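1st attempt posting a full record on here, be nice pls
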Amino acid sequence: MSSSKHVWRFFRAGGSDQVAIETADDLRHLRQLDQTLWVALACPVKGLEFDERTLALIDQDGDGRVRAPEMLDAVEWACQMLKDPAVLLKGGELPLAAINDGHPEGERLLASAREILTHLEKASATSISVYDTMQTTTVFAHTKFNGDGIVPVDVTAEGDDRAIAEAMVAALGAATDRNGKPGYTQAMLDAFYDECAAYSAWWAKAEEDAATLLPLGDATGSALQALRAVRPKVEDFFGRCRLAAFDARATAALNRQETEYLTIAAQDMHITAEEVAAFPLARVEASRALPLVEGLNPAWAAAMAAFRAQVVEPVLGQRAVLTEADWEKLTAVFAAHEAWTVQKSGAQAESLGIARVREILKGSSKARLAALVLEDLKLAPAMDAIDNVERLTRYQRDLAVLLNNFVAFRDFYSRERPAVFQAGSLLLDGRRAELVVRVDDPGKHAALAGLAKCYLAYCDCTRTGGEKMTIAAAFTGGDSDNLMVGRNGVFYDRKGRDWDATITKVVENPISIQQAFWAPYKKLVRLIEEQVAKRAAAGQAASDAKVSAVATTTATLDTQKPPEPVKKIDVGTVAAMGVAVGAIGAFFTTMIGYLTGVFTLPFWQVCLVFVGILFAISLPSMAIAWLKLRQRNLGPILDANGWAVNGRVKMNVPFGGRLTYVARIPVTAESSFAVKYPEPPTALPKVVTAIVLLAFLASLLNHFGVVHNLSGGKFGKDPKATPAPAVAPSTTPSAAR
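the predicted structure (as tokens):
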């Protein structure tokens, strides 16, 4: 807890006291405000209706979340860079006169701001905007160095230095300079020369033992590639021949079945005979030598020709066949060279060739290229100041808005502008829901957001061009009768773009007390409708079955057997039916007794009884709805999106009514009550209503003696009359008997 004497102002919203950040002193003392009074302690960088670049600048550790300490650091830095932090609360462009040039960093920042404006031909401007700071390509278009530690290739001098820089970028990939050009860094320069040195040292080993490691000189590498290309098939051939020598019965199987050739022969074959590439390299026989000219698998003819020309003939001389011993000799000749190639280092410099690599290592270009990097880095402080100009202009424009959606949710409750987490508005079922948030995973989001006690509708939104988005909309007004999976609506994002929206998931919670009152009766009506539909379907099926049976009977009258005699009614069945009828009769007798007792009351009391019954049925549903509506909370909806909501963010019924607009005809509109396709006119509902109201009023007036007094005592109940005493039960002997 801070002991600061700064006086904070709070406002009451969402069931908690929230701080009002209104003055420069509020910004200066923000670190001293107890963080338990903050509404949120963290928010995601992405998925908000807020500039992601600004949030990324505040997110110092780059973890994709802005936390309270990072927010405090941003506010403190901005206060140091400005003469009067109150300008942060105004937003808009950053006045140059507001920059604190009395601070060393602020002085560099002001100079950099003026330099940016000068490059943009706005030297006389008195303020700088975020857009100005984003024109870095224009600012650095005519500068050789810009302090980012990346030297563009075209900055290097013509000649060998330029060629080495180009080779370096080609080998390692280019770094992009602040002006958008490809270049190199000191780390790339060191890595490139390390690769060249490693490649040269690797070649030196081969040069020291050339007879063993380079048996064919410079042609050894290509010869090894030719040998590797056919090695699996050659070893497969000799392995099959050894197996055939072991057991002649295996020879036919080792040469593939005739049916396999028939299948291939039925097709159009390619010149390269790829269809038989998996077949043996040559016909398999016991202890047979591998033919090098005739009788080879056509799919391997080209590879074997290269093997013969580059490997067999240089080592063994001219020959038409290759024995297994010859093969083992060839592999032994290239074994050392193959082991040497596995140990290759400096592979990124290999494309230059060993001669060019050693030429680069002997030259002095590295020192000159490194000097250019140092020359560029000398401007780093000034360029960092340019980055800070962008940072300060963004804080000037956005920081106050962010504080009113982080430390407090002032924007959300004031309704002057949407909060940063509100993605837009959803129009569906005659309503406009304004509490809409973006969602990545509806299932995961709903698991926590359901605790918000809000009716949530998750929608998949699409736009022409393939854009997609998922949203969750809170409905806080109207009813839920027509909110169901599959309903379509239109979503308008904060940019005013329209999206097709389809409900894919709902989290049901009460929307209003009125809806809760009618919920039991709507449920009863739906249950009756379902039962009626089931009975109707069953009746229709039974009717169809009877019709089918009659038709079948009629068509087969001449083949039917005589009908079986009617069975006698079982006595037990009759007794059971009697018991059932008696129970039903007893139930109706009891109900009639209750109704008779009710209807002996005055009519107005009968009405009150029925009203009481209605409320008794609806009261549990209304009580549950009342409790849930009091618990309605925005926190779980935001927490499910990665926020860390610290305080209570409640949405009571009046405020919830403002978050969902239910369609109403404007008061200034002209309405015509004529119906184009009216129902047949009937006065019965109006007559019944009038009779009930008149009867209720007459009964009420009679009970209080108004009718008696107005009629001079001729009609109605006399309120002053003494009720007749109750007749005591008889105690005569006859009665006793």
